[in-house]
């Protein structure tokens, strides 16, 4: 068996595949030889070698039409990458129910609807198919300011495990929990190079991910190298987030006024050395 990540002859649909992490995923699938279709809510100039469709993934009828169009054009659909997602910062106590509903809709319900449409095709074609859900480290840790997003991503990881059982053995379903990634929007979000550098110092590997590195993980999960991987949550976060108590231990202790002590009785600080 060849160990090359060769996806020649396979058709992949990448939602939100024209910018940010999605663009890195698209480029990685192209490099692996796949035929790539992207979609987004806006009409954009497609990346060379791809075709692009305008589709709001929160619209179930539009998603069904998109999958039908991919199959009509290419005869099959081998890979779905549910990448479209995200959420603006908003405190949970202040955000409206409509806001939360939209966040959960985009990050949980939309991937489910797209997966359902893809599964209907994959179950009936030779070779089945693979679905890769792009999740987040926010699924497994507190997500203040994006609480609904974190909850939706936790739901997406749970959904991944359930679909992997329901749709086996024809369709494999996995998720990638992505950490901080350097995209065209990173500097604006974190206050420029200085802010990014400060954040990167907290990452064990010393830097944020590049979008294509997330793409490499997605290609692996879609490839024959992962033929026995399904229902998995693969973390792509550069080593994760070190526990906060470690930074407390390495920070200088606050100074306290010294208290007089007699020659026969050492100070508290001396006793604790």
UniProtKB/TrEMBL annotation:
Name under which the protein is recorded:
SDR family oxidoreductase
User: NCBIfam families, per this entry?
Assistant: PRK07856.1 (NF005893)
| Organism superkingdom | Bacteria
Amino acid composition bias (Low complexity), ranges on this chain: 250-273
In its UniProt record, a GO molecular function of this protein is:
oxidoreductase activity, acting on the CH-OH group of donors, NAD or NADP as acceptor
Q: Which Pfam family would be a valid example here?
A: adh_short_C2
> Which segments carry the region annotation Disordered?
243-273
Q: Which residues form the Ketoreductase domain?
A: 10-181
Q: Which residues cross the membrane?
A: none
Q: Does the keyword Oxidoreductase apply?
A: yes
Family designation: Belongs to the short-chain dehydrogenases/reductases (SDR) family.
Q: Give the record's keywords alphabetically.
A: Oxidoreductase
Which stretch is the leader sequence? none
